[in-house]
Design brief:
By secondary structure, the chain is α/β, with parallel strands linked by helices. It contains 15 helices and 13 strands. The strands form two sheets. The chain has a seven-stranded parallel beta sheet, with helices on both faces. Helix 1 packs across helix 15, helix 8 packs parallel to helix 9 and helix 11 crosses helix 14.
Length: about 375
Amino acid sequence: MIVGLDATVLREPLSGVGYYIARLIENLVDGAGEGMVDRLLVLSNRALSVPPNARIKTYDRHPIRMRSLWMQFVLPRILHRARPDVVHFTNYLAPLGLDVPYVTSFHDMSLSLMPRCHTLKKRLLSAHLLPFAARNARLILTPSESTRRDVVRLLSVDPARVRVIPYAAAGAFRPVESGRERLAAVYGVRPPYLLYVGTIEPRKNLARTLRAFARVSQAHPALRFVVVGPLGWKYAEILREMERPELTGRVARLGYVPESDLPALYSHATAFVYPSLYEGFGLPVVEAMACGTPVITSNGSSMAEIGEDAALLVDPLDEGAIAQALERVASDTALREDLRGRGLARAALYSWRRTGRETVAAYLDARRSA
């Protein structure tokens, strides 16, 4: 089977969808599906850095840099020449005119549920194309049951065409005993600290979380709050909360951190704090659990699904509830140990090998239905 794979968002520095594509490529050419994928056509409008492999052919040279234009006007011609058996569009959108069966990944439905958390350009462009991509896909892949329900409800899609294939933490995410010296030398981070990993933007609920931390900070004078991740958009309020007088010297914003340093950051944290307003999967939650880090996360969307019985779940809109959870995890050693064990067990349920195997099964089903 020849598979085309949309890699248009596989760019450094990698973000959530970028990691998804990178890990998927790695597994598709390394045994996932028991050799069902004979060739992988990696497709992008920008130059890619893909590890050389005899089973990979890369199409990544074209002057059109706007993803949506390239996808609609250039990619169909590439696919017509390359003639893959099935194409996987990994980030929602697909060309309007396509004579090849395809599957598409819908990582979440925040564009419909939380439009205010997206740019006007994205709302105007994607809102019109998402229903088309969903309607014409042989299968829609979602990372959680929560997102599957959202897709079915919001896009009126036949539930039989929406398949849950969860993501996973990479193998490097595991409890790490060493690394304290590097964290101190490179990032100025020393335990005890609470940790957040993700883009700095309104949907992540950081402003409310920082106010909750301010409520408990006086009772825990050594505890700091470490924020890891790039600036997204509409982050001014979040940065102002970091500069509250009572949090002077208590919040460290590290920016983007290479993945190689994240396991140590997770492992030495008192807890991972992620009360996002909405997530389609919440990959950092699983990464933290895989490192044995106690997790505080939201009681809604996919985070409740992943964190059930393995994390402290809070109402993300209730600042007092977030503060209470921070106080509990900072004060209760037994609770932290319990969450550590539960989180490790939960993270073990997910693997990229499983993701690759189930994705190949989706390709086969999509091709058979052609």
